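PROTEIN DESIGN WORKSHEET
SECTION A - STRUCTURE
LENGTH: 184
TOKENS:
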């Protein structure tokens, strides 16, 4: 197994067992057949984006072994870090499948609210946007983020809301993100 951290852009992999990924940006399933050669475009967070004959496909963590790739290790949150810090850490480990920058640095997170419900449970709401409103990856990214936030010990429920007002533009990106995306 190839360690996830050792994957570089341009690395070639061979599909060891049939798997289904999500075509980017449409978000529709695309099946990769055993023996097919694919090229890594990015390996960030815990997902992989591949180029298959000019089509981008996002591969989830649970399918990495079908490419001969070991799943990335879990990132532990520092002991004593606040719940809000833990949530921001989760968000910073979530990447746009086309742009090699995390969603926080891209400026896709508009609001984060943590509240205690009447019954004492902890609820988290994240308002986020997309770089393009019609991107089919939005629901997939939102589900992924919701699952990761709800996996935090202190969180009982998370809601990820897609918002498009105000519309996203490159001015929301950090300077580092603009450098990484080649916008300088």
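SECTION B - SEQUENCE
RESIDUE ASSIGNMENT:
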């Amino acid at each position: 197994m190839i360690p996830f951290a050792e994957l570089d852009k341009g690395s070639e992999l061979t599909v060891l067992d049939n798997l289904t990924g999500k075509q980017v940006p449409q978000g529709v399933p695309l099946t990769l057949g055993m023996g097919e050669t694919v090229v890594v475009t990015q390996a960030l967070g815990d997902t992989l984006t591949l180029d298959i004959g000019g089509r981008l496909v996002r591969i989830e963590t649970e399918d990495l072994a079908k490419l001969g790739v070991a799943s990335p290790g879990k990132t532990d949150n520092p002991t004593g870090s606040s719940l809000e810090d833990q949530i921001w850490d989760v968000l910073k480990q979530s990447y746009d499948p086309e742009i090699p920058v995390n969603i926080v640095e891209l400026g896709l997170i508009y609001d984060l609210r943590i509240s205690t419900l009447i019954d004492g449970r902890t609820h988290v709401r994240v308002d986020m946007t997309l770089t393009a409103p019609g991107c089919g990856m939005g629901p997939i990214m939102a589900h992924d983020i919701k699952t990761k936030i709800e996996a935090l010990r202190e969180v009982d429920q998370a809601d990820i809301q897609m918002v498009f007002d105000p519309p996203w533009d490159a001015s929301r990106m950090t300077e580092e993100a603009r450098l990484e995306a080649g916008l300088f």
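SECTION C - NOTES
The first strand starts at residue 2 and ends at 3.
The first helix runs from residue 83 to 92.
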